[in-house]
Design brief:
It contains four helices and twelve strands; from the N terminus they run αβββααβββββαββββ. It is α+β, with helices and mostly antiparallel strands. The termini are far apart.
C-alpha cells in the first residue's frame, strides 16, 4: 500500500513530460538551395546537409573549412597553415565541380580554374550553410556537377546591437571579431569583421 502514492505521482510526472514534449516539437527545416524555392527538408530528393547557427556556435571553428570537413562525402585539403589555399572536393570530384554561393550569389573564381578558395572564409558571421551533394547541374549549371554549397551570412534583426569576442592562445595566437547589426521590416544590416 505504501507504493501506490509514489506510482501515481510517477505516472502524473510521466504524462506531464510527454504532453510538454508534444507541445515543444521543433519547426520544420526549409531548404532553398535544393530546388531554388523554399521546400521542406523532408521533401528534397537530393542528399542534403543543413548546418544551422546553433551548430556553428557550438563548433567554435575559426575557418569555415573546418566545419565542412565533417560533412559526409566532403574532403578538405589545405596546403599549409590557416590562410593557405584550401580546396573542397565532394564525393571524389574535383574542386571546380562544386558550386559555392554566398547568400545565393555564385562565388566560384574563373581565374582559379572555376573553383572557390576557402582559405580566407571565416565562420564568424555565417548564419547557416545548405549543402546539396550529387549532380545539381540542371538547377545551378555546369559548376554544380558534384554538388552545391550555399553559405548564408547573418542578417540584422531588432534594435541596433553590437557583439564582439577576443581569444588568445598558445604560440602567441590571437583571434577576435566584432559586429554591429540592426533590422526592421523595411531594412536590415549587419557589419562584421574577424
Amino acid at each position: 500500500m505504501r507504493f501506490l502514492p509514489i506510482t501515481a505521482a510517477s505516472a502524473a510526472i510521466s504524462i506531464f513530460i510527454h504532453s510538454t514534449a508534444a507541445l515543444a516539437s521543433p519547426l520544420e527545416t526549409v531548404v532553398v538551395t535544393a530546388s531554388r524555392t523554399a521546400m521542406p527538408l523532408a521533401e528534397v530528393g537530393s542528399s542534403v546537409t543543413v548546418i544551422n547557427s546553433d551548430e556553428l556556435e557550438d563548433r567554435q571553428a575559426v575557418a569555415l573549412s573546418e566545419i565542412l570537413r565533417d560533412v559526409p562525402g566532403f574532403a578538405v585539403s589545405r596546403n599549409g597553415v590557416l590562410g593557405s589555399s584550401t580546396q573542397i572536393r565532394v564525393r571524389g570530384a574535383e574542386g571546380n565541380h562544386v558550386m559555392v554561393m554566398i547568400d545565393g550569389v555564385e562565388a566560384n573564381d574563373m581565374a582559379q580554374g572555376d573553383e572557390f578558395n576557402f582559405a580566407h572564409l571565416l565562420a564568424g558571421d555565417v548564419d547557416r550553410i545548405e549543402i546539396i551533394r550529387g549532380p545539381q547541374s540542371a538547377l545551378w549549371g555546369s559548376d554544380a556537377l558534384a554538388g552545391a554549397v550555399n553559405i548564408i551570412t547573418r542578417r540584422g534583426a531588432g534594435p541596433a546591437g553590437a557583439r564582439g569576442y577576443f581569444e588568445a592562445g598558445s604560440f602567441a595566437t590571437l583571434n577576435g571579431g566584432a559586429s554591429l547589426s540592426a533590422g526592421t521590416d523595411r531594412y536590415d544590416f549587419h557589419l562584421g569583421g574577424n
